[in-house]
Amino acid sequence: MNDHRDRLQEQNSAEKAPAPQRLKAGGPYVNRYGRKGGRGVRPWLLGAKVLMVNAALGATLSACAIAWLARRSVVDPDAAAAIVRFLLSRLVHPAMIGAVVTGVALFLQHPRVFLRQRWLQCKWAVLVGLVLPLMVLSLRQSRDASAVAQSLPWLLAALAASLVVVVLLGRIKPRLGQPIQSAASKRPAASESRASNV
Fold first, then answer.
1. Does 30 score more than 80 pLDDT?
2. Is the Cβ–Cβ distance between 131 and 197 less than 8 Å?
3. How distant, in Å, are the alpha carbons of 14, 15, 86, 173 from that of 60?
4. What mean pLDDT, rounded, does the chain reach?
5. CA angle 176, 182, 185 (to 5 degrees)
6. What is this structure's pTM?
């Protein structure tokens, strides 16, 4: 008798329990789990960074083409120097500064995770070791009309190649020999140590 009463009570409680909310076709979504909508400012920072990197790369390729035309005496070296100087000072440098600022803002969202990524370490090495020095040297060389037809085309070609490497590292994110579960494998060890301390 007692078992029968318990079963009846369980059935009655199951019938009275509210049915789970389902998403109807065309109906509004009900947030039942307390998740925050969207991804915060990260998509906006990524969009701004992509635009600025593309602007810097496009302006660098344009300046490189103009410098090579001046080297082959197709364009006047003085006019080419003025155009290259304008592209570097008004487009490449501001765009790269903005890209670095947005990159730092993205990095600060998850610094511990990003510090372990080898592709990001290589990207920073190329950025600091090649891109920034080549930007400064190219701007200095563009002030001399004779250098536009001599060393500047090679500097701009190296700057464009370095920017392409930076873009590929940020887009492909290669492992570069890093194990896939190197970061995730540390979490169980930490949880086991906490459990042993309890």
1. no
2. no
3. 69, 70, 11, 23
4. 81
5. 165
6. 0.69
Percent of the chain with pLDDT over 70: 71
Q: What's the chain look like in SS3?
A: CHHHHHHHHHHHHHHHCCCCCCCCCCCCCCCCCCCCCCCCCHHHHHHHHHHHHHHHHHHHHHHHHHHHHHHCCCCCHHHHHHHHHHHHHHHHHHHHHHHHHHHHHHHCCCHHHHHCCHHHHHHHHHHHHHHHHHHHHHHHHCCCHHHHCCCHHHHHHHHHHHHHHHHHHHHHCCCCCCCCCCCCCHHHHHHHHHHHHC
Q: CB–CB of 120/174 below 8 Å?
A: no
Which single residue is written with the structure tokens 């090679």? 154
More confident residue, 74 or 39: 74
Give the torsion through C-alpha atoms of 22, 23, 24, 28, to 10 deg.
Answer: 130
Residue-wise pLDDT tens digits, 52-103: 999 999 999 999 999 999 988 888 888 999 999 999 999 999 999 999 999 9
